[in-house]
Give the backbone structure.
Amino acid sequence: MPVALVDCNSFYASCEQVFQPRLQGRAVVVLSNNDGCVVARSREAKALGIKMGEPWFQVRRRLQGQGQGQGQAEEVTALSSNYALYADMSNRVMRILGRFSPRQEVYSIDESFLELDGLPEPPEVIGQRIRSTVLRWTGLPVCVGIGPTKTLAKLANHLAKQDPAWAGVCDLAVLDAGEVKRLLAPVPVGEVWGGGQRLAHRLGALGILTALDLRRAPSKRIRQHASVMLGRNRLEPRGADRSDHQLHQPRRREAARPAGRGCGDHGRDPQPCLSP
């Protein structure tokens, strides 16, 4: 059963660029509560080396000290978070995605799983139609990852974002086993669903550094040192936990301001304001 993971690119920053066209093509960062830390970055801001969670005053100081004085720092537009806007844009995107499949699981404010089984077009064609429709109707760019499980679909989405050759849609099902292994080899283990950077350090001590290392590692060994989700699902197209194949009915979700104020308010771009 093919599963697609649709993920908006740099969601908060992209929302701001949609409603402020002058920001298109510019480096944009969105800041946390009290304008403390970077919680979202446009592609142009990422190219400047701006990191997620980095305090804004440190970003400005670093850019000013890179040999160009005020110039490079002034090229970056920093905006306060607008959670009402992001929630509204999220609702628009999720409604559009629901048109493409009767089985949808809204995973976060900017991500949704779709079952593509039994649809009249090939998954890759559907993925490209999803991209063009969301962009045309909302102005937001998205990437689509397609795989036999949610874990692999999420990993495929990561690959689609990293390599322009995929044109925004990566379908692992069209690749042979050797090609899949080649793609998994350079992917850091922290990018795997259920992983994360803290867990990546723990697995690194065991010699598990990449997604391919994780796929080859015995399940029992992974469960002893990692999360239950990572140990069960791993990166296998078959034999994974049933929850990795099945989509859950979406629950009503709404955006709200995070209660925290520090740099740790947001774990990654751009999921944080979503209530469970």
About this structure: Residues 251-276 have pLDDT under 50 and may be disordered. Strands lie at 3-8, 27-31, 38-41, 76-80, 104-108, 111-115, 142-147, 169-171. The CA atoms of residues 16 and 23 lie 8 Å apart. The radius of gyration is 19 Å.
